[in-house]
Amino acid sequence: MKYILSFPIFNQNTQNFKALLALAWGFFPFITALLFVDSPWFAQNIFDGRYLADILTLVYFGLLFKHSDAHLRKLLFVMIFLSYLGELIFCNGAGMYDYRTPYVPFYVPFGHSIVYATGYIFAHTSWAARYDKVLRPIFIVFYALVFVAVGYGWNDHFSLLFGLLFFVLVRRKRWQNVYFFIGIAVFTTELIGTYYNCWVWRPYTYGGLATANPPLGAVFFYGGGDVLLDKIVWYYERKIQPVLT
């Protein structure tokens, strides 16, 4: 991995933030169209859109990668492997949810990377920095209401537990708004993906813990992956890259 990240393509510090911001806003219609194309309805009534979904995701990922600086390019790349590992653990291993096909779709790890980048880009805008202290309590109240609402309204004990752990995680990271921005992209993806039946969460997991479809408390696992991703890239940039250069 360290040798791959040392390639020149991962160390170009030019960035087109306007293009990145346009892609971040475009994420919402993009993910809606992408998951519709991969839906069972689309496969049954038009054609199996899985390969088209793969192509669309690779193109969108390529655009993000093209306009990113060296740091975000590394984050995008490493996130692919972390998300695939997460799929093996939580989907294939723990059996928390199932895709419409027996295997994890090719586009999913790249999609996770796009979800991460969307939140990252919004969190690094000038207005997010300017209103950082204003946004933080708004995010905290919003997320708390979401976890409580789905926990009691949808009988989603999973989200009550892991929503609490999400707050513990973000508190340890000093309430950085980047995790809240990423969470918005996660909520959007989970709600649309389950609406189109691209994947389905099982009603019970972890020995009988009631789970909605989707359980919005799953944002905790994204947050944990984001923390690990940040540590990996941080370690590379500060410990390994200086030695290689």
Q: From the alpha carbons, calculate the radius of gyration and give it in angstroms.
A: 18 Å
Secondary structure tally: strands: 4
Give the proportion of residues in helices: over 70%
Strand content: under 5%
Categorize the overall geometry: globular
Structural class from helices and strands?
mainly alpha
Distance between the termini: 16 Å
Low-confidence stretches: none
Biggest beta sheet attributes: 2 strands, antiparallel
- Helix tally equals 11
Strand-and-helix sequence, N→C?
A: HHHHHEHHHHHEEEH
Across the major sheet, the strand order is 1-2
Q: Overall mean pLDDT score?
A: 94
Transmembrane segments: 20-37, 77-97, 103-122, 134-150, 178-196, 216-236
Keywords: Membrane, Transmembrane, Transmembrane helix
Protein name: ABC transporter permease
Written overview of the protein:
- Keywords: Membrane, Transmembrane, Transmembrane helix.
- This is ABC transporter permease.
- It is built from 11 helices and 4 strands; from the N terminus they run αααααβαααααβββα.
- The longest helix is centred in the C-terminal third of the chain and has 26 residues.
- It starts with a helix and ends with a helix.
- A two-stranded antiparallel ribbon has the order 1-2. It has a two-stranded antiparallel sheet with strand order 3-4.
- With 245 residues, it is mainly alpha-helical.
